[in-house]
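Moderator note: this is an archived Q&A kept for reference. The question asked for a predicted structure of one protein chain; the sequence and the answer are reproduced below.
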Amino acid sequence: LFKGKNMTYYGRWTYKFEEASRQGAAGVLIIHDTEPAAYPWTVVRSGWSKSKLQLQSEDNGMNRTVVEGWIGLDVAKKLFALGGQSFDALVTKARRKDFKAVDLKLTTSLTVKNKIKKSITYNVLASIPGNKLKDEAIIYSAHWDHLGVGEKVQGDSIYNGAVDNATGVASLFEIASAFKKLPKNPARTILFISYTAEEQGLLGSEYYAKHPAFPLAKTVANINMDMMGLAGKTKDIVVYGYGQSELEDYAAVSARKQNRVLVPDPVPSSGLYYRSDHFNLAKVGVPSLFTGSGVDNIVNGRAWGLKRVADFTKNRYHSPQDNFDAKTWDLSGIVEDVRLLFDMGYRLSNESTYPKWKDGSEFKKIREKE
């Protein structure tokens, strides 16, 4: 059910908060462990040290737990010890199917004071109408938001989000420009979406999935771009959630034209397939592809590429240090990836076939019901 060490949606913080609300919990504290999360505590701090956005609901969010928060691993271990339990021992036991929740027999009192502000933010959509199958759409997506102004880190408080996700938005523009320059429009409609509030919990794409511009049954695929090109030009391209859909087969054909290969996520426990906007389309059945920067650099090799990605995650991801630097950035990998994603989308845009979810995908039955 949980695909071993590969993280699924059940391991994501959004699911834990959702499930706590469904179970009627008064509060929920997520224990952050850097190794399985694949990002440091500073990422949690930068994202949760100020106001949070939520989609408008009929009950104004009253169905949510009163307390939604995070604690570090060291604090969690102290808390468990206060309850007479060993954190490490319970984690080991929790890996068994017959594990039951343990009451720490601890209590606390607290008062929560919230200021609620209602505002509007926007998804940005543009389309190139199909010349034959106008009612069928292929989505290219990339979120435009980041974290804005926040806590100072190394003297800087502006979170620019150059990699995450100006690279994706720039790629979206380039692919749109390439489709627009074609001698004639493709058979199917190409829909370009730049989502809002991805960093707040994929809110823009959640809204779109509930209010789609095209019927979901007529939405052929979603190709999502987020954090592009960290390792320069590579021999490979990473597919997050490898083995999910036939879109990978289309990507593989386009990759071969560049003498490249598709590879699975080198850190599957990070669960990146469940952490970007395409996931909300997948949840409603639309086959969705999310590729990442390759890691096997054509000059420096795979170990060097993995080190580059790890360095970004540790030192710049969700921090003011995620800046563009013309002197050090190698854009050749992004160019290759954009050409690959355009090529596979162009091929699909002139077909009448619908890519399917592969056997074993948790989204397969959803699509088959449509």
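Archived answer notes: The chain has a mean pLDDT of 92.
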